[in-house]
Automatic annotation (TrEMBL):
<keyword id="KW-0539">Nucleus</keyword>
<keyword id="KW-0156">Chromatin regulator</keyword>
<dbReference type="GO" id="GO:0045944">
    <property type="term" value="P:positive regulation of transcription by RNA polymerase II"/>
</dbReference>
<keyword id="KW-0217">Developmental protein</keyword>
<keyword id="KW-0808">Transferase</keyword>
<dbReference type="GO" id="GO:0005737">
    <property type="term" value="C:cytoplasm"/>
</dbReference>
<dbReference type="GO" id="GO:0035642">
    <property type="term" value="F:histone H3R17 methyltransferase activity"/>
</dbReference>
<dbReference type="GO" id="GO:0032991">
    <property type="term" value="C:protein-containing complex"/>
</dbReference>
<keyword id="KW-0489">Methyltransferase</keyword>
<dbReference type="GO" id="GO:0032259">
    <property type="term" value="P:methylation"/>
</dbReference>
<dbReference type="GO" id="GO:0035242">
    <property type="term" value="F:protein-arginine omega-N asymmetric methyltransferase activity"/>
</dbReference>
<dbReference type="GO" id="GO:0050890">
    <property type="term" value="P:cognition"/>
</dbReference>
<dbReference type="GO" id="GO:0001939">
    <property type="term" value="C:female pronucleus"/>
</dbReference>
<dbReference type="GO" id="GO:0001940">
    <property type="term" value="C:male pronucleus"/>
</dbReference>
<dbReference type="Pfam" id="PF10294">
    <property type="entry name" value="Methyltransf_16"/>
</dbReference>
<dbReference type="GO" id="GO:0044727">
    <property type="term" value="P:epigenetic programing of male pronucleus"/>
</dbReference>
<dbReference type="GO" id="GO:0140297">
    <property type="term" value="F:DNA-binding transcription factor binding"/>
</dbReference>
């Protein structure tokens, strides 16, 4: 299985914060091979993995990652961004939501933030820890974050010992820049 550079950076951020993870309720969205979620579970967090309910193969990849890492008890749920489903309604409040490179297609940005908005209402102090690969200077979350009453803090990779040149390498042609964000409700919405 190939692990994207964004997943590696997010896993490194989790490892840097590993002492604060035991007992935390964590949901990984768009989990795929689930590296960040698996690491969080290994560090003592209560983790739920999710991927699109419309892509059963992706959910099976999550289950396989759990099996390969001796974590068969981890819950895997199908969540489709922008859709209210029974699985979404049944989720308990989360402390942290993980998202590795989910901001891939601009047409999905609002659906992702709408889903986060719903989850943030269950716990207004929840944070979305997200990494993404910069693909276009024209793509921005700023207006959507404002619309959904959220704020974003950019986390410098160097602040958690991530070597920006090495950790974000990939076999894809050209240079790739990985960014780390922490998204939460804006203060005036609490």
């Amino acid at each position: 299985m190939y692990v994207w550079p964004c997943a590696v950076v997010l896993a490194q951020y989790l490892w840097f914060h590993r002492r604060s993870l035991p007992g935390k309720a964590i949901l990984e969205i768009g989990a795929g091979v689930s590296l960040p979620g698996i690491l969080a579970a290994k560090c003592g967090a209560e983790v739920i993995l999710s991927d699109s309910s419309e892509l059963p193969h992706c959910l099976e990849v999550c289950r396989q990652s759990c099996q390969m890492n001796n974590l068969p008890h981890l819950q895997v749920v199908g969540l489709t961004w922008g859709h209210v489903s029974w699985d979404l309604l049944a989720l308990p409040p989360q402390d942290i939501i993980l998202a590795s490179d989910v901001f891939f297609e601009p047409e999905d940005f609002e659906d992702i933030l709408a889903t986060m908005y719903f989850l943030m209402h269950k716990n207004p102090k929840v944070q979305l820890w997200s990494t993404y690969q910069v693909r276009s200077a024209d793509w921005s979350l700023e207006a959507l974050l404002y619309k959904w009453d959220m704020k974003c803090v950019h986390i410098p990779l160097e602040s958690f010992d991530a070597d920006k040149e090495d950790i974000a390498e990939s076999t894809l042609p050209g240079r790739h820049t990985v960014e780390m964000l922490v998204i939460s409700f804006a203060k005036d919405s609490l």
